[in-house]
C-alpha cells in the first residue's frame, strides 16, 4: 500500500528533475550572475551589486518599454485576426477543420528566421506588395514600410498568430452550438449572442492565447533586427548585444530578470482583470 | 611546376551562389550564437582568470609534429573539396579535420573562453578570427601561442608588407593573416544618379532614409572617425565622442534606414537602401554571382582594412602541425587557389600574377571569372587604394566597454 502511494511521485520524478536541472538551476545561476561585478578579463565576483539593475533600467528603459508596447500591439493584432479565424474554423469549418488548422500551422514548418527574412522581401519598397500598389497608383511612390515600427509589429503578429488561434479554437470547438441557438430563441440579437454567450465562453482561450503571444513577442529580437530600422530596437536585441558582443554577463542577466519581472507583473494584473477562476480553468485544461 | 587542380564544372562563385542561402558568409548563423554562449556560461560558471603570457621558447620546447590537425575556420572560406588541405596532406602527410565552426567572432570567443580559462583543449589546434576586440582579449588573457617564425619562412618571403608587423599584433607574435577585406561604400547605380566618392555622401540629406550603416561598434566608429578627418588607428576617447555625435546627427536627420549586422546586400540590390557601408568581398561575390552592377568605392576620406587571422590556441594539441599549415598556405600557388574561391584580399601579393596566368590557360566562363577576379580592385586594391586604407584602432580590453557603449547608443536606439 505504501508503495502504491509512492508511484505518482516516482512517475513525476523525471519531470521534476528535468525542471530542476534545466530551469531552476540556470535561473538561479543567472540571478546570482546578475548581482556580480567584474569583466570577462578579470572574472566576475559576487558582490550583490543591486546597482546593476538600476544602471540597466536607467540605460535601457526606452527599449524595455518599447518591447512591451510592440509585444502588446502584436498581441492585439493577433487577437483581431485570430479570433475570427478560430471562430470560422470552429463553426464553419465542417469536415475540413483539420485541414484549416494544418494550414495555420504550415508556416511553422519553415525556420523562424527564414520566415522573418521572407517578410523583408514582402515588405520591400519595390516588392510584391508595395511595388504593385505603387505601380497601379494606389500608394505614393515614396511609401516605405520596411524598417519601421509597424513592420516589426506585423512581423511579430505574423510569426506568433497560431499561438493565438489554437487556444481560442480549442475553446470554441468544444462549445455547444445549441447555446447560441438558445440565445436566438430568447430574442438575442447577433451582437448580444456574441457578447453574452460566445465571448464569455471563449475568454479562457483568449487569455491563454494572449499569454502565449505576448510573452514571446515582447522578448523577441529577430523581428526587430530583420524588419526594424532606427529607433526600433527591442530589449531582446539589447540582451543579445550585452551578452555576446560586450560579454557584460551581469548586465544581460539583470535586464533579463527585469523583463521577466515586468512580464510576471503584467500577467498577474491581466489574470486579475479576467478573473482568477478563468486562469485556473485554462490551467485545468 | 604549375599546379593544375581539378576545377569544378561551374565557376566557384556561381556554384557557391547556387548552394548557399542568400546570407553572407560573415555571421550566417549569427543568431545561433546566443545559444552557444548560454551553454558556455552554464558549463563554466563564470570564467575569466588572467593567465600569464606564454614564453615562446618554453611553449615550443619539446613540441613535435603529431600528424593530425583540427582547424576551425569561417564558412565558405575554402572550397568544399578542401583542395588546399588535400595538397597539404599530400605534401606533409598531416591530415586535417576542417570545421566551419567560426560563425561570428563574439560567439566563438564566448564558446572557447571558458575552456581556455581552465587550460582545456578547445577541440581545435588552429583557428581563424578577425583582428578586433576578441583578438585583443585572447592576447590579453594569454590564450594564444606565440608563433615560432623560424618555421614560417613562406610568410617572411611572400606576405605583403602591409600584412607584417600590424598594430593589433606587433611582430606577428600570435597571428598571420588568412584573408583581408575592405570596409568601404557600396552603392546601387540604378537608384543613385551620381558618382559616390566620399563618406560625406553618407550624410547627404538627398539620400534620406536610403542609407545603410553597419551595427558593429568598430565598423561604424571607423566611418564616424574618417568623416571627421581622424585616422581610426590613432584615435582616442574625445575622437570617439565626436564620431558618435556625428553618427547620431546622421541618424536623427533620418538619413539612416537601418543598422545592418551583415545582411545589407539584398536591400542594396532591390533598392530599399541606395548606398551602404559594405565589405568588398561580399560586393565582388554578389556581382559575380547575380550579375548585379553594385559599385564599391574606397572613399576619399579613407576606409578600413580588416584581416582574418590564423592563430594557435595555447591548449592546441598539434601546434607544430598548425605552423606547418600556416606556412603551407603562404605558398603563392596555394594562396592563389584560396583566393580563386573566396574572393577576398589575399595577404600574398604574388597571387594576382598567378591568377592572371591561370586565366590565360583557362577558357570560357572560367577564364572570364579569373580575369575579372585578378583585375578586381576589390580583391587586389591598387596602391592608391592601399594608401587610403587604415587599420582599426586597437582597443585595450578595459577601453572596450566605453567604446562599445558610445556607439551602441547610436545603433541600438
UniProtKB/TrEMBL annotation, chain A:
Superkingdom as given in the UniProt entry: Bacteria
GO terms for cellular component: plasma membrane
Keyword S-adenosyl-L-methionine among record annotations: no
Name this protein carries in UniProt: ABC transporter permease
Subcellular location(s) per record: Cell membrane
Membrane topology classification: Multi-pass membrane protein
UniProt record, GO biological process: transmembrane transport
Lineage, top ranks: Bacteria, Bacillati, Actinomycetota, Actinomycetes, Pseudonocardiales
Coiled coil: none
UniProt source species: Haloechinothrix aidingensis
Keywords from the named record: Cell membrane, Membrane, Transmembrane, Transmembrane helix, Transport
Major location category of this protein: membrane
TrEMBL record, chain B:
One Pfam entry name: SBP_bac_8
InterPro entries listed in its UniProt record: SBP (IPR006059), Sperm_putr-bd (IPR001188), TAT_signal (IPR006311)
Entry keywords, A to Z: Periplasm, Signal, Transport
Gene Ontology terms describing biological process: polyamine transport
Cellular component, GO annotation: periplasmic space
UniProt cross-references to Gene3D superfamilies, sorted A to Z: Periplasmic binding protein-like II
PANTHER family, alphabetized: SPERMIDINE/PUTRESCINE-BINDING PERIPLASMIC PROTEIN, SPERMIDINE_PUTRESCINE-BINDING PERIPLASMIC PROTEIN
Name under which the protein is recorded: Spermidine/putrescine ABC transporter substrate-binding protein
Amino acid at each position: 500500500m505504501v508503495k502504491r502511494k509512492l508511484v505518482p511521485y516516482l512517475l513525476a520524478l523525471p519531470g521534476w528533475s528535468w525542471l530542476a536541472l534545466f530551469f531552476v538551476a540556470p535561473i538561479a545561476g543567472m540571478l546570482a550572475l546578475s548581482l556580480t561585478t567584474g569583466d570577462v578579463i578579470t572574472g566576475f565576483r559576487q558582490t550583490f551589486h543591486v546597482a546593476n539593475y538600476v544602471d540597466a533600467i536607467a540605460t535601457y528603459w526606452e527599449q524595455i518599454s518599447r518591447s512591451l508596447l510592440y509585444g502588446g500591439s502584436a498581441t492585439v493584432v493577433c487577437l483581431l485576426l485570430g479570433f475570427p479565424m478560430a471562430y470560422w474554423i470552429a463553426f464553419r469549418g465542417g469536415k475540413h477543420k483539420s485541414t484549416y488548422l494544418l494550414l495555420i500551422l504550415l508556416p511553422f514548418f519553415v525556420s523562424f528566421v527564414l520566415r522573418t527574412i521572407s517578410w523583408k522581401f514582402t515588405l520591400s519598397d519595390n516588392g510584391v506588395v508595395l511595388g504593385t500598389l505603387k505601380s497601379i497608383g494606389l500608394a505614393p511612390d515614396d511609401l516605405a514600410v520596411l524598417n519601421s515600427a509597424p513592420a516589426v509589429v506585423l512581423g511579430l503578429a505574423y510569426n506568433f498568430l497560431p499561438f493565438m488561434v489554437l487556444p481560442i479554437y480549442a475553446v470554441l470547438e468544444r462549445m455547444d452550438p445549441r447555446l447560441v441557438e438558445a440565445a436566438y430563441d430568447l430574442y438575442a440579437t447577433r451582437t448580444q449572442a456574441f457578447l453574452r454567450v460566445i465571448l464569455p465562453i471563449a475568454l479562457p482561450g483568449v487569455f491563454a492565447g494572449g499569454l502565449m503571444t505576448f510573452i514571446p513577442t515582447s522578448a523577441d529580437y529577430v523581428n526587430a533586427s530583420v524588419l526594424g530600422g532606427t529607433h526600433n530596437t527591442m530589449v531582446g536585441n539589447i540582451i543579445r548585444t550585452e551578452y555576446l558582443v560586450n560579454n557584460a554577463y551581469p548586465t544581460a542577466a539583470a535586464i533579463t530578470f527585469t523583463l521577466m519581472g515586468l512580464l510576471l507583473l503584467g500577467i498577474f494584473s491581466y489574470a486579475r482583470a479576467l478573473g482568477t477562476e478563468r486562469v485556473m480553468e485554462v490551467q485545468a485544461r | 611546376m604549375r599546379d593544375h587542380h581539378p576545377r569544378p564544372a561551374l565557376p566557384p562563385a556561381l556554384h557557391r551562389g547556387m548552394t548557399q542561402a542568400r546570407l553572407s558568409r560573415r555571421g550566417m548563423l549569427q543568431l545561433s550564437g546566443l545559444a552557444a554562449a548560454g551553454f558556455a556560461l552554464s558549463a563554466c560558471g563564470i570564467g575569466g582568470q588572467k593567465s600569464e603570457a606564454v614564453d615562446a621558447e618554453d611553449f615550443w620546447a619539446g613540441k613535435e609534429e603529431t600528424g593530425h590537425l583540427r582547424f576551425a575556420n569561417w564558412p565558405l572560406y575554402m572550397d568544399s573539396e578542401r583542395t588546399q588541405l588535400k595538397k597539404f596532406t599530400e605534401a606533409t602527410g598531416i591530415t586535417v579535420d576542417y570545421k566551419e565552426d567560426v560563425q561570428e567572432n563574439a560567439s566563438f570567443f564566448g564558446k572557447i573562453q571558458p575552456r581556455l580559462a581552465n587550460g582545456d583543449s578547445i577541440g581545435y589546434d588552429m583557428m581563424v578570427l578577425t583582428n578586433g576586440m576578441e583578438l585583443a582579449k585572447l592576447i590579453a588573457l594569454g590564450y594564444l601561442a606565440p608563433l615560432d617564425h623560424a618555421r614560417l619562412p613562406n610568410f617572411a618571403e611572400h606576405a605583403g608588407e602591409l600584412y607584417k608587423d600590424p598594430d593589433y599584433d606587433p611582430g606577428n607574435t600570435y597571428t598571420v593573416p588568412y584573408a583581408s577585406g575592405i570596409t568601404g561604400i557600396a552603392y546601387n547605380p540604378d537608384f543613385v544618379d551620381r558618382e559616390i566618392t566620399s563618406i560625406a555622401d553618407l550624410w547627404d540629406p538627398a539620400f534620406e532614409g536610403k542609407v545603410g550603416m553597419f551595427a558593429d561598434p568598430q565598423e561604424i566608429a571607423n566611418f564616424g572617425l574618417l568623416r571627421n578627418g581622424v585616422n581610426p588607428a590613432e584615435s582616442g576617447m574625445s575622437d570617439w565622442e565626436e564620431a558618435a555625435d556625428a553618427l547620431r546627427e546622421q541618424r536623427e536627420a533620418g538619413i539612416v534606414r537601418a543598422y545592418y549586422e551583415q545582411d545589407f546586400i539584398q536591400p542594396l540590390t532591390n533598392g530599399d537602401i541606395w548606398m551602404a557601408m559594405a565589405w568588398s568581398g561580399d560586393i565582388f561575390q554578389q556581382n559575380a554571382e547575380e550579375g548585379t552592377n553594385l559599385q564599391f568605392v574606397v572613399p576619399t576620406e579613407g576606409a578600413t582594412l580588416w584581416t582574418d587571422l590564423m592563430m594557435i590556441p595555447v591548449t592546441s594539441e598539434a601546434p607544430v602541425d598548425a605552423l606547418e599549415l600556416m606556412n603551407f598556405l603562404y605558398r603563392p600557388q596555394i594562396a592563389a587557389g584560396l583566393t580563386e574561391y573566396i574572393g577576398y584580399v589575399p595577404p600574398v601579393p604574388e597571387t594576382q600574377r598567378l591568377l592572371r596566368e591561370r586565366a590565360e590557360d583557362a577558357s570560357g566562363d572560367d577564364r572570364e571569372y579569373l580575369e575579372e577576379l585578378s583585375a578586381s580592385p576589390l580583391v587586389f586594391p591598387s596602391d592608391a587604394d592601399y594608401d587610403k586604407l587604415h587599420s582599426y584602432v586597437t582597443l585595450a580590453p578595459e577601453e572596450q566597454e566605453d567604446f562599445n557603449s558610445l556607439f551602441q547608443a547610436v545603433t541600438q536606439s
